[in-house]
């Protein structure tokens, strides 16, 4: 008779960005049960937002997701704009797009580092964290902060781009493209990567749909669903792009989807910089934030994060503060519905990288 | 061909509001919510994006909302149901949308909604050893709670 | 990229990394090498505490409650000379601050900035709370921008009658806000209350603006009536010192507080439904001499305090200068009727055409009433002893304005000279312009002013000067009157003026000097003197008048509650030092005196 035992992955573990724990039950070194245990990070943001003026929440929202804060700012701003019936200026749309894609690049490089590290290749994490830093420097220039930008706000963006910034972004894009050759060489074309991930933690198309997956999990299983395409926001409607998909739904495919998304993001940045109106306002006129009433209503605003559909459900009761804000992070479903299922049957050594291949971001659900 | 809005209207007991072409609100009675969700899934709303609660304290009601997504029509529909705040009970939707399971655990904990059929709803999820009102309810005063449970430090006057 | 290239893993490709052994590393050798800090960096704050006015908007917007307002005097004494400024400065708790810079965006003076410096360490948690100063030597980083700001810097435009149209009648020039405009304008207000200190009556401005924003005009009016019994009138003719103090003066346009006030009161046909607390009757009686703004104000507040009040007004209308002086195009009669009517509704008795000293004696009032308030104002024109001023076509502004407004005078000559550069002179000149337009179609007519003061020190408000210029009034600034020149038939030829050297002498005293050799003639057959007014105390018996003390500037000496040196006799309005010569300061000191009288009556028992 085999004996099972429990093990905690986390709350502090290199496989997960942010404090979070997965309780697994093993027999031998095979997982028989997995249960996510959130709460280590909970900051009661949804509650806190109800007590603050709309603009004040700017300090909270980027903190919902650490590696990719801008999606929160964008979705929040879109929800407020929707309730107020505000159309943001054209240039602001493009700036948002560039910022969001740059954030995606930063996030994906960050992810690459984590993923390679959980597979034992620490070289790549050194590289990619370093390369992410160059993106953070670009953010630092436009808004004065590296991680929590508070740059996209209701009405548009907070400042116009500093002179020469577009060129520096293009330089960065060029640089990353060059670096990707080496990333491919040491990682994506590395035979060890293939052996560790091919056929691992498969989420089939049917499962992905049934379980409510979004983002790379769904695309890796063959469904081309992407908010940027399906419900275009910012300037995505003006850009020309295809959503990458693969068919196998395994760890390898998910990693490759993210690799393809990197290419797509770099391409989108280039397109957006080229098409962007060179002058013009970047923020609509907004009411005084201490008095600015948002008309009563309910709305759902969503954007595509690096992990999937990221949304804000916002309810206003005709006052200066939101009545209710519900945040939907893609990882909520990915962890509690999908990871808990696909981890079963895995070996202990694969748990970490499976979690990263599903890109579980605890701050997103533990908000 | 029948538009998606008409298809939703065909579902018994639904009141449909179209906010804009891809944002639809569907109001239903409590008894019909599971049936509605089931029918919604049949007509293509295969993804549950968010399930949460709005505390309508002035009406003494909870508004439970399910944001659904139809990937073929590229439409988001929100199914809304109002339930009694004093006796907040709903039936689980996890049989229809497996991802509802975790959302229901969350609303059970944060709002004190009782979810029938979801075995884990009501068990500690995010909170630990919580013994006050469910914290997302409007009548839970977080500042009062903090001042009762934590000591505030008052800094002395200092300047560099 | 082609996915096929990736499907077969390679053993050798990873060796590509070896080349990095020979490349320059990306890491910086800190502290020898540092990264440049971008200009918009959001680091620790910097505050120019001399520019800061302590308005507290930074504290109000802070999402983290990181800011408290503290007295900086131990660390860095500041001079509070700016109007409206509060003697406190933001103090920031860096244990709470999220470096969002919303405080910087919301700072109306632009004194607050972020710096490029974020490094600060101490083992003592309390050391992270301080008042940011410029002296801390941090390099500025993130600053506010005028293009993108959460503040609504621009005021709503007010619709006015065009000059050509408005000259044709005495119709009110300013249209007043529409509902939408008022809401928008009210929305601009930050609720900081800095403006309240500028208002002589310290009206509850943030509260009543908030009520206007909420669409609760009666609540708004209630707030106004607490300190100002004539809000609708002040909403038209006030000198609006509050607006000069509004924090938006530093960036953008001040909030149009005055027009908001007018808007709210205009929404109510009467104030009958405004809830006003009234105390039970005290059985005491107060006599008020003069029905001008200060008398009305004192009377109203005394009534709400439960005393019974009678106003003795010498003219056929109450309102003082409001009724007789201010032209209709600025203040229509119906507004006066509405607000004075409200005061009467509250229980104040107004005896018109009753001159104290003639129809009723001052001594009798002292005997019959428990207290007496003198608010007779400066209702007599001051003459400048101009050579030739005895001529019937040389008149006083105050009489001229009354004749036009109250008695309906419409005749005027073709060429008029107005002496004076104050607001009353503007009222006169603009009234003349209207009469000339109505009578002659402005064909071949002139109206010109001569004032001692040059443009830069002209006492009239800019709005009035602009209005007069638009109505083709000719100005002769820095020309002082010398004498009236007559034609042979005895009619007036014009006013001879001489060039002013200076108005004030070196010590700043009023002491005009002229270039005696530079003279010119302002042609005109009608001259209106508008150089100031004075009071007349003939109604007070001599032996009492002797006991009444005056200040060096010839104002009635009163204590802080308006009591004169005669017991039981109070004074206010333009008679006392606290007056700034406008309605609102008269209303304010009338209110103050009411409090004083109330105290006096309660102590008297
Ligand atoms: S908002 Fe600006 S002016 Fe007002 S108190 Fe703060 S720093 Fe001073
Ligand atoms: S930067 Fe933001 S958090 Fe910090 S003091 Fe200013 S408003 Fe408050
Ligand atoms: S009117 Fe100006 S000074 Fe007065 S409270 Fe409003 S913003 Fe502040």
Structure description:
- Chain A is α+β, with helices and mostly antiparallel strands and 367 residues long.
- Helices cover 47% and strands 13% of the residues of chain A.
- Chain A has one domain (4-366): Cytochrome-c3 Hydrogenase, chain B.
- Chain A has helices at 45-50, 70-84, 90-118, 122-143, 165-188, 191-197, 205-211, 215-220, 227-230, 251-275, 330-342, 348-357, 362-365, and strands at 4-9, 21-27, 30-37, 152-153, 156-157, 297-304, 309-316, 322-328.
- In chain A, strand 6 (297-304) and strand 7 (309-316) form a beta hairpin.
- The longest helix of chain A is centred in the N-terminal third of the chain and has 29 residues, at 90-118.
- Chain A is globular and about 65 Å long.
- Chain B has one domain (2-157): Beta Polymerase, domain 2.
- Helices cover 23% and strands 31% of the residues of chain B.
- Chain B is built from four helices and seven strands; from the N terminus they run αββαββββαβα.
- Chain B has a five-stranded mixed beta sheet, with helices on one face. In chain B, strands 6-7 form a two-stranded parallel ribbon.
- The radius of gyration of chain B is 19 Å and the shape is elongated.
- Chain C folds into four domains: 45-136, Alpha-Beta Plaits, CATH 3.30.70.3270; 163-266, Fumarate Reductase Iron-sulfur Protein, Chain B, domain 2 (Orthogonal Bundle); 285-379 and 535-603, FAD/NAD(P)-binding domain; 381-533, FAD/NAD(P)-binding domain (3-Layer(bba) Sandwich).
- Chain C is elongated.
- The model of chain C has no long low-confidence stretch (mean pLDDT 83).
- Classes of the chains: A alpha+beta (367), B alpha/beta (160), C alpha/beta (605).
- Chains in contact: A-B, A-C, B-C.
- One iron/sulfur cluster is lined by residues 47, 52-58, 90, 107-109, 111-112 of chain C.
